[in-house]
Write a structure and sequence with these properties.
It comes from Lentzea atacamensis. Keywords: DNA-binding. This is TetR family transcriptional regulator. InterPro entries: DNA-bd_HTH_TetR-type_CS (IPR023772), Homeodomain-like_sf (IPR009057), HTH-type_TetR-like_transc_reg (IPR050109), HTH_TetR (IPR001647), Tet_transcr_reg_TetR-rel_C_sf (IPR036271). By secondary structure, the protein is an all-alpha fold. The chain folds into 2 domains: about 50 residues, Arc Repressor Mutant, subunit A, CATH 1.10.10; about 140 residues, Tetracycline Repressor, domain 2 (Orthogonal Bundle). The chain is built from 9 helices and no strands. Helix 4 crosses helix 5. The protein is elongated. About 25% of the residues are buried.
Length: about 200
């Protein structure tokens, strides 16, 4: 039997995650049946569950994949840039993909509220985004760009709360064209203000 290349396995995993993202966003966790996952990914249940132990593992991998992508942006450009990217999503990609991401993000929030087992598993993974945000803020403080009268932990929580609020705003379909000045204000709030001498 021929061996399957790692590139092929990675491409198949990406295909499953992309299809599952759309399925979970449209139908929610409970409504994303195996049949619907098969339709969304274009693969059989055997192919899907060869890569993921069960539906919960698939959903957790999907949420973790989104968190890792966000953590990469945070490490390079900060959490406010993640928020700016959310506002740009309809222009950068098709609106359906942006809606899928938001739908998945909201499903994560719902499951965190209602499912203690998921909450425990997710806590381990969500720390990556928090750690990336905290490290970025520490680097900015060391460079003299970040206000030093507020603890970095407090600033991290502030930015994460703003992100959650923005996600909720977008998920409700509220207009986003006036959000750039709000994000400018958020950035200004965490910056160090230099006194005129």
């Amino acid at each position: 039997m021929p061996r399957v290349s790692q590139d092929h396995l990675d491409a198949r995993r990406r295909q499953i995650l992309d299809g599952a993202r759309a399925c979970f966003a449209r139908h929610g966790y409970e409504g994303a049946t195996v049949r619907r996952l098969e339709e969304a990914t274009g693969l059989s249940r055997g192919a899907i569950f060869h890569h993921f132990r069960d539906k919960e593992s698939l959903f957790l991998a999907l949420a973790e994949d989104d968190a890792l992508r966000m953590a990469d942006v945070v490490a390079e450009q900060g959490l406010v840039q993640v928020m700016r990217d959310l506002l740009d999503e309809p222009e950068k990609r098709d609106e359906e993909h942006a809606a899928d991401w938001l739908g998945t993000r909201l499903e994560v929030s719902r499951r965190l509220r209602t499912d203690p087992d998921f909450r425990a598993r997710w806590a381990e993974r969500s720390e990556q985004l928090t750690a990336a945000t905290r490290q970025r803020l520490i680097r900015q403080r060391e460079a003299g760009n970040l206000r030093d009268d507020v603890d970095v932990t407090v600033l991290t929580s502030f930015l994460e709360l703003v992100l959650e609020g923005l996600v909720s705003h977008l998920a409700m379909g509220l207009p986003a064209d006036d959000m750039e000045p709000v994000l400018d204000l958020v950035e200004e709030t965490v910056r160090r203000h230099r006194r005129n001498s």
